Model the fold of this input.
Amino acid sequence: MGVATEGEDERVHRPLLDPAATAAAAPDLDTLDELVTHCRACPRLVRWREEVARVRRAAFREQVYWGRPVPGFGPADARIVVVGLAPAAHGANRTGRMFTGDRSGDVLYAALHEVGLASQPVAVSRDDGLELFGTRITAPVRCAPPENRPTPGERDNCRAWLARELELLRPNLRVVVVLGGFGWQAVLPVLHAAGWPVPTPRPRFGHGVHLTLPSAAGGRDLHVLGCYHVSQQNTFTGRLTPAMLQDLLREAARLAGIEAR
Done:
């Protein structure tokens, strides 16, 4: 699963161990998304995601798990990017689409639909007809990690995919919504390297934190919004309510120039 064989296209073979070189050469998002799915750069994550796909949860025993790295989801001209943490073992690692098939995704997509950024409030599979409007969802780590805890080295191995994704989105990108402290720590260095200088010391994460980063290349400013992660730990305890999430997404839409409900 996900292993390239002799004679396969070189674009598929190279990312197995060297995502940095391969991501940088991707000419567009469709190519990048395909390349992501073949990455095997982190042995621990490869073993875990494939073991989960083999054993499966009882409720999904009859389903065929995706069991590979998960690409971003959303249009190539997105003005808003939502950055999470990593695929859930029995969510995106099962369905192959970010935040699809788990309770965190239920909360996120319901809020996106409520404010007019998604075509429907539920996400159950890659072929359920869901569309995002002006919005793309991605993560700094593309494989499901044990206990939802990727290591710093795994995060760094994966950084090239996010860096190239943001670079390709740059012509239209206005707002980055970061879900949780891990994503915040991962995305700020990527933005800085991409030409949006981040202040030093780097601003601390918090719900509702709003950074405005001027483009060093003379382009548009980028708005970065912090949001508590849509994990069950936050949503079940009321730390993050649907109203809080919807308000923040409406603000993201306003900053991006998208009419929200």
User: Anything to note?
Assistant: The chain is about 40% helix and 10% strand.
